[in-house]
Structures are given as structure tokens and as C-alpha cells.
Amino acid sequence: GVNLLGARAKQGKSSFCKEVALHVACNLGFNVLVLDTEMSKQDLFAKSLASLTNINIKEIETGQFGTNQGKKNLVYTELKRIKNSPLDYVRVAGKEFDEILSIIRRWIHKKVGYDSNGKTKPALVCYDYFKLMSANTLKDMQEYQAIGFQISKLTDFSKQYDFSTLALVQLNRDAFSREDSSTISGSDRLVWLAHSFSIFKDKSPEDIAEDGINLGNKKLIVSESRYGSGHNFGDYINMKFNKATGKIEEG
User: Fold this and answer.
1) Which listed site, 104, 119, 138, 192, has its alpha carbon 20 to 30 Å from 144?
2) What is the pLDDT of residues 61-105, one digit of tens each?
3) In what order do the strands lie in the sheet with 218-225?
């Protein structure tokens, strides 16, 4: 099934997705496919290396880390770990959604495989993010309908091939003042069909004053959950987001 994570633009949802992908592939050893509609492979590698090494992203991107032997050794060690992990990346900008599903199908057949009972081995797809990919789609339907069809297809597809999905979605301006599913941009169907919907957002000055800065500058709110209660109003998981390295940790 599909689990949704929503955030406003430039608030770290791609970094969150990247952190999950790195943990599942590098630490747990399960196959992960990152489908990205915006970032390049070079961007993903730079941000991944910055997170794993705690070195500033700009130092990674410009190669300045190479002037320090300790940092250089650390970067190459983590680069080798990423390359040896079952982590795959495909940029899907501009592709029709049915073509994206075909990419997932080929990946499952060629990389993930099946166990002795014919069941798909544990696998995670990270989709960044639900949006209209082609203006041609608007000839036949409204944008909200097109995005609704995307999650409908992905949900059915993930059940058919038995894999998990973490998918990202943009939140509208209501996310500044509200913390529920009404903040999703695009289509109500995104929440209807998802296993869960969570919000990743900045803490307010009042939140930080109450929690203390050591517990983090972000909060993760489980707004909707099919297989659990989710969070009560005002509850959240403390998160620490270091924008300089792109590293996200639980507070």
C-alpha cells in the first residue's frame, strides 16, 4: 500500500524521503527504488553523502571536502556503502504515470525477485512526489482527478506486486495553521486510498519554547492511519532537521 508524507515546498520532504531510503537500503539491506520527479542522481548522492558523513552539502557538491584527508576518507567510505547497497534511483520527470508503473514492475522482476513461495521479497518504493506530469492529461480530466487516478493506480499496483510505498505530496497554505488532511493539495482521493497520512512541518516558536531546542525544530504528525489511531490533536513526534547536511533524526 501507499503511505503519504505531506509538507509545504522547501520544508524537507525530499530529505525525509532520502533518509528513509538510506536507512532501509544501507542499514536494513532491503531493496529500495527512489522515483524522483525533480532531483538529479547527482543531487541525491550529494545530499546522501552529506547526511551520512555530517559534512556540509556545499562541501560535498564543490569537492572542498577533498582538502581534508579525514573528510575525504569518510566520504569515500560512505560512497562505497551506498553503491554496495540495494538502492536504485530513477528520475521520472515528464514521464506518464503508466510508464512509471512499468519502471517499478521491471525493477521488481530484475532486482527484487521472489521468495520460494512466489511472494515479492521485502521492497520499498519512494515516490517524490504526486503531481501532474503532463499538460496533455488536462485535455481529458481536471488536475485533481488526474492525481486521484495516480494514487488509485499505485495503490492497486502495490497490492498486486506486494511492495510498500512512501509517497510525498505538497501541502497547501492551510498547512501553516491546520494539521489535518484538509491541507493536501490536489485531491481528497490521496487520503482516501492511503494507508496513512503524515505531516512534516516546522515547529512554532511556542512548540520549541515548550519542548526545548534539543528535541528538534520539526514535528511529524500522523494525521490519518488505517491501521492505528494516529495522533491526538496537539500530539507529534519531535524531529531534528539539519539543513546544512540534510540529516533528519528523531528528537
Assistant:
1) 104
2) 999 999 999 999 999 999 999 999 999 999 998 888 899 999 999
3) 87-91, 31-36, 123-128, 164-170, 2-7, 196-202, 218-225, 237-242, 247-250
